[in-house]
Amino acid sequence: MKTYSNVYKSQKFRKLFSAAIALKESYDMKETFEVIEKQFDKYLELFQWLNENLPLNFFKGSQLLRHSKALHFYIKKKQKPEKCYKDIRDICYQDLIEVFQKWIIFKTQQA
Fold first, then answer.
1. Among 97, 99, 111, 78, which Cα is nearest to 6's?
2. pTM attached to this predicted model
């Protein structure tokens, strides 16, 4: 069962990465606000899973929570997407990678 759980969680991480990249690509391609909002909703659903299933110490030292909250604020308030572009870029290229690395180290230590 532990192996299935690890695989399942790694698949969820992969989906979360994909959703974040898709959101960033929507920004890069200057998609309509509606498209960006739909991409964000996909990201948010997976992010909430991550937030609910990992201990808070996985987020220590990472800006993932702050960047995700900023995205949520700007997108749900229908602010200009450019205001939070740095947040989605940091999520894709730094924050998710840091959290995933902590998860891998944690799982390795448990084995």
1. 111
2. 0.85
For residue 43, give the nearest of 10, 4, 6, 72 by alpha carbon. 72
Residue pointed to by tokens 């974040």: 20
Enter the tokens of residue 3. Answer: 């192996």
Q: What is the rounded CA–CA span in Å between residue 92 and residue 24?
A: 8
d(CA 60, CA 35): 31
Q: Percent of the chain at pLDDT above 90? A: 52
Q: How many angstroms separate the Cα of 31 from the Cα of each of 80, 82, 106?
A: 12, 12, 38
Structure tokens at 74: 């700007």
